[in-house]
Design a protein that fits this description.
Layout: H1 3-25, H2 31-38, H3 43-53, H4 56-66, E1 78-83, E2 86-91, E3 95-99, H5 104-113, H6 115-128, E4 133-137, H7 143-150, E5 156-160, H8 166-176, E6 183-186, E7 189-190, E8 195-202, E9 207-208, E10 215-224, H9 226-233, E11 239-242, H10 248-253, H11 256-262, E12 265-271, H12 272-277, H13 283-291, E13 296-298, E14 303-304, H14 306-310, E15 316-321
Parallel strand pairs: 4-5, 4-11, 5-6, 7-10, 11-12
Antiparallel strand pairs: 1-2, 2-3, 8-9, 8-10, 12-15, 13-14, 13-15
Helix pairs in contact: 5-6
Length: 322
């Protein structure tokens, strides 16, 4: 690091310390302040202060790392070749998936570019080897459901995705992979009770409950619960993947019977930032799983405590519960 760069960081850090000191001096002793004081020992508290007060020259490289954009030795060996059914993605020479050109960035991001996603994918594929039925809550483009079904003709997946933009895209991928008898798409959101919900539709096709910087419009979607779907379909997953942008607590509360009686392995993409923006303590999500006897593991297999998950400084934590 150059002397000039070091001097700039030193000055920026000094101003940050001064601002943090002034902010703490202005705290009033009221119930809200007392609660916040109790949070001072948590990583999430210090993360919130860093986001508010640190200069962008410090936050930018840290943000990249926290979102998984780091070099990784875990990358999959991915190649692409044209076929009469579309572009064929060959993943680690053991998994073939037919895609279209539009879907290629999803493969690159999940298997090559983002280290957190690479670890998540490794864990999912290892768990999928012994599983027969997948419930994919928040399927988006259907990648995990497609991979699961391509791993064996005896596997079945139910993909839940409420985005009207993604529905025809998932259906097209099901068709070119000839998975009509294995993979069923249900255009519904997963929640704590049956009904409807207003969500923001982004230009990427994502739908989420929080305001978006790139919205197309607000849409009303049908909501179901995992317990209700198990009863209606008369099937119970042994593998459950959840990635629903800060709606994790509602999904788990709508799966009480499934989690307590069938105990599927859960692959959870845990959006701490979104939960906090909604005023929900992330700890409630891990509490819900612990209530049903679940233990936690990182995607690379290490045992985790609940606090290591809900008090992470990362915006998103990917973990396994079983």
């Amino acid at each position: 690091m150059s002397k000039r760069r070091l001097k700039e960081l030193t000055i920026a850090t000094s101003f940050t310390v001064m601002r943090l000191t002034l902010a703490l001096m202005q705290l009033r002793v009221d119930p809200i302040t007392i609660r916040r004081m109790n949070e001072i020992g948590t990583k999430r508290f210090w993360r919130s202060l860093a986001v508010k007060y640190l200069p962008e020259c410090i936050k930018s490289p840290v943000r990249k790392k926290l979102h998984g954009w780091t070099d990784s030795s875990l990358t999959f060996n991915v190649s692409f070749q044209q076929s009469d059914r579309g572009l064929l993605a060959k993943i680690d020479s053991g998994l073939d998936l037919y895609i279209n050109d539009e879907f290629k960035p999803n493969i690159d991001y999940q298997f090559v570019q983002n280290s957190d996603c690479i670890e998540e994918s490794r864990a999912f594929i290892n768990l999928a080897k012994d599983a027969k039925i997948l419930f994919d809550a928040g399927a988006y483009a259907g990648l995990f459901s497609l991979i699961f079904c391509r791993m064996g003709k005896d596997k079945r997946a139910i993909a839940f995705e409420p985005s009207p933009v993604m529905k025809p895209k998932i259906e097209a991928l099901i068709a070119i992979n000839q998975l009509e008898t294995q993979l069923r798409l249900k255009p519904k959101a997963i929640g704590s009770e049956e009904g409807s919900l207003s969500l923001v539709l982004e230009d990427t096709g994502f739908v989420q409950i929080l305001p978006s910087p790139n919205p197309i419009k607000t849409i009303d979607v049908e909501v179901t619960t995992l317990d209700l779907e198990c009863k209606r379909l008369n099937i119970y997953p042994d593998l459950l993947k959840i990635d629903i942008e800060g709606f994790e607590l509602e999904a788990l509360r709508g799966a009480e019977e499934l989690l307590s009686t069938k105990k599927p392995i859960v692959c959870l993409e845990f959006h701490l930032n979104y939960l906090e923006e909604r005023g929900i303590q992330p700890k409630l999500v891990t509490d819900e799983l612990e209530k049903h006897g679940y233990k936690f593991y990182s995607c690379s297999g290490e045992s985790l405590t609940a606090k290591q998950i809900y008090d992470s400084i990362k915006p998103v934590v990917r973990f396994i519960a079983k």
